[in-house]
């Protein structure tokens, strides 16, 4: 397990956005044996299940096996063990860096990471992985480093909110649906990225 690539989803309470993103990604990358996915909250409602509204939304997207989810509080230890950290907002991203500065180069908002991935061609990815060991998590970590470096090469977005997923907690089912419509495409892009990296390392 220690040699698997660890993806951590982060939101506030760890009962809506981050567990939804976690279990959706788990469903999408279940065939990649070297990837683990988990979630945590910056102000977690520790021990709570996924919210009823989020469960409804998750089921509508075919997400399964989320009944065992229990919210947990983000910690330095959890961050230190994570290879890719994806937050739902820029504020949460700042909180992660404040809590554990050593993860700065591997923390992004979820939608920011998807935007950067979309700008990475197969040729660029293959080139970045050409000199990397194919063992365990190494190719995935190298790919994330490559994405991090591309931040400076991509034009800034005009509206920072485009890099965030709206918080649906305490709101109507319609707001939960709107939140999901921001989150799901980004998770799909992430899943395709992880599959691309995995396919590049198959010998």
From TrEMBL:
Active site location: 11, 17
Gene Ontology molecular functions: protein tyrosine phosphatase activity
Keyword line: Hydrolase, Protein phosphatase
Hydrolase recorded as keyword: yes
SMART domains referenced in this protein's UniProt entry, alphabetically: LMWPc
Phosphotyrosine protein phosphatase I domain sequence ranges: 5-193
InterPro entries cross-referenced by the UniProt entry: LMW_PTPase, Ptyr_pPase, Ptyr_pPase_sf, Tyr_phospatase_low_mol_wt
Cross-referenced PANTHER family: LOW MOLECULAR WEIGHT PROTEIN TYROSINE PHOSPHATASE, LOW MOLECULAR WEIGHT PROTEIN-TYROSINE-PHOSPHATASE ETP-RELATED
Family note: Belongs to the low molecular weight phosphotyrosine protein phosphatase family.
Name of this protein: Phosphotyrosine protein phosphatase I domain-containing protein
Species this protein is from: Corynebacterium stationis
Lineage, opening ranks: Bacteria, Bacillati, Actinomycetota, Actinomycetes, Mycobacteriales
């Amino acid at each position: 397990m220690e040699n698997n690539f660890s993806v951590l989803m982060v939101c506030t309470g760890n009962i809506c956005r981050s567990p939804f993103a976690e279990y959706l990604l788990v469903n999408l990358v279940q065939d990649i044996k070297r990837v683990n996915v988990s979630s945590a909250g910056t102000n977690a409602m520790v021990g709570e299940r996924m919210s009823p509204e989020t469960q409804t939304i998750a089921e509508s997207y075919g997400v399964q096996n989320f009944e065992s989810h229990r919210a947990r509080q983000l910690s330095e230890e959890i961050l230190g063990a994570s290879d890719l950290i994806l937050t739902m907002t820029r504020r949460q991203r700042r909180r992660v860096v404040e809590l554990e500065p050593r993860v700065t180069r591997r923390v992004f908002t979820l939608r920011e990471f998807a935007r950067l991935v979309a700008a990475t061609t197969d040729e660029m990815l293959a080139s970045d992985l050409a000199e990397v060991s194919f063992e365990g998590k190494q190719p995935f970590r190298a790919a994330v480093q490559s994405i991090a470096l591309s931040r400076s090469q991509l034009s800034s977005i005009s509206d920072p909110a485009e890099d965030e997923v709206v918080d649906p907690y305490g709101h109507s089912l319609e707001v939960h649906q709107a939140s999901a419509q921001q989150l799901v495409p980004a998770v799909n892009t992430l899943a395709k990225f992880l599959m691309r990296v995995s396919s590049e390392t198959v010998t």
